From TrEMBL:
One of the record's GO molecular function terms: glycosyltransferase activity
Key word Glycosyltransferase present: yes
Biased composition (Polar residues): 326-337
UniProt name for this protein: Putative glycosyltransferase ytcc
Pfam families per the UniProt record, alphabetical: Glyco_trans_4_5 (PF16994), Glycos_transf_1 (PF00534)
Length: 354
């Protein structure tokens, strides 16, 4: 088996000579799997078996710190104990950052490069702080009945300048120096915004940052994130996620349920600004989306779920991706179109229906 983490064409090009020898390819997300199958189709590569999906998981250490049941819990460190410790950690870290209770902290943690969209995030924050788009008029009308009710409790007295943006990871070897300089020039040109931006170095102690945050932003551009482990980590800590409607992010984040999605590129910057304002002004929406996201992690993205998926991918040749049901049709969690495309890549062959 080969568990593939990348969704870039150059990685595919390096591996294509051996893809037809691998017994089973495993991908992180459906969008990544479809992209690789498209490339296999273009290159006339026939795979030995149907790929499987095995998403990443929240590791036990972070689940433990988030107050989610894990192998690290003991009678002295129950989930209730850890939830209380998380609240204490939040207060301590926010105090160290100079934040007060009224401040909304939006966090994004990744290498600093154009593909991660930090500059567009800064543009969104500037639009919100300097322009102040109206939540009531421009956002609520675009949501369904459930989300309009959830999002309607808007606090019009909230100061938009109370939003703080924490960007990491400073010092990462993956950072693009020229891009970092571009961010700094942008902040120099917008002094009001620069007062609202915080930086954090690369660290493995991310639990304290998630605990201090109110919102997580996943603003990856292009093909988007292959999966985005930080997305599910943030959800484990009860954070709503503002993410691009692309790649693995759109598969993890349920729009209006566990967070809000926005388009790629500059068109998405204005919508992200509105979404930031919306969550700044509506604490109940933040809490409700955070609860839903945490519940999703507990159901789908813990280590035990990842191991279970690996077991299925090893012993079940269809691995739940395009599994025929009793009628010979694709199961509800699969795509008939995807199955047809895979059949073409496999040279027209398919496993017999059950």
């Amino acid at each position: 088996m080969w568990w593939i983490m990348e969704n870039r064409r150059e990685y595919f090009n390096r591996t294509k000579p051996v893809l037809n020898r691998v017994k089973k390819l495993i991908f992180l997300s459906e969008s990544q799997s479809k992209q690789w199958l498209d490339w296999c189709d273009e290159e006339n590569i026939e795979l030995k078996s149907e790929p499987a999906l095995v998403p990443l998981s929240v590791n036990d250490e972070l689940a433990f710190a988030a107050g989610i049941s894990s192998s690290l819990n003991t009678p002295s460190f129950t989930t209730e104990n850890m939830l209380e410790k998380r609240r204490s950690l939040r207060n301590a870290v926010r105090k160290e950052m100079g934040l007060n209770d009224a401040d909304l902290l939006a966090v994004t943690l990744s290498s600093i490069n154009p593909g991660k969209g930090q500059l567009l995030l800064l543009e969104s924050a500037r639009l919100m702080i300097e322009s102040g788009p109206s939540v009531k008029d421009s956002i609520l009308m675009d949501h369904d009945y459930y989300s309009r009710n959830l999002l309607s409790a808007v606090d019009g007295k909230k100061d938009l300048k109370s939003v703080k943006v924490l960007i990491g990871s400073v010092g990462s070897k993956s950072n693009k120096v020229l891009y970092v300089k571009t961010l700094l020039r942008y902040l120099s040109a917008h002094s009001n915004l620069s007062k609202s931006v915080l930086w954090t170095p690369a660290t493995t102690r991310v639990a304290s940052l998630y605990a201090a945050a109110d919102v997580y932003v996943m603003n990856s551009q292009g093909l988007g994130e292959t999966f985005g482990r930080v997305t599910i980590e943030a959800m484990a800590f009860g954070l709503p996620v503002l993410g691009t409607d692309s790649g693995g992010t759109k598969e993890i984040v349920e729009h209006n349920v566990t967070g809000l999605l926005h388009p790629l590129g500059r068109p998405g910057a204005r919508i992200l600004a509105k979404n930031l304002e919306l969550l700044l002004r509506n604490a109940s929406a933040r809490v409700e989306m955070g609860i839903r996201g945490r519940e999703k992690v507990e159901k789908m993205y813990l280590k035990k779920h990842m191991f279970q998926k690996f077991g299925e991918s090893k012993y079940d040749p269809w691995a739940g991706l395009v599994k025929p049901n009793g009628s010979g049709q694709a199961a509800p969690n699969s795509s008939g179109d995807f199955s047809a495309r895979f059949s073409k890549i496999m040279g027209g062959s398919r496993a017999p229906s059950a």
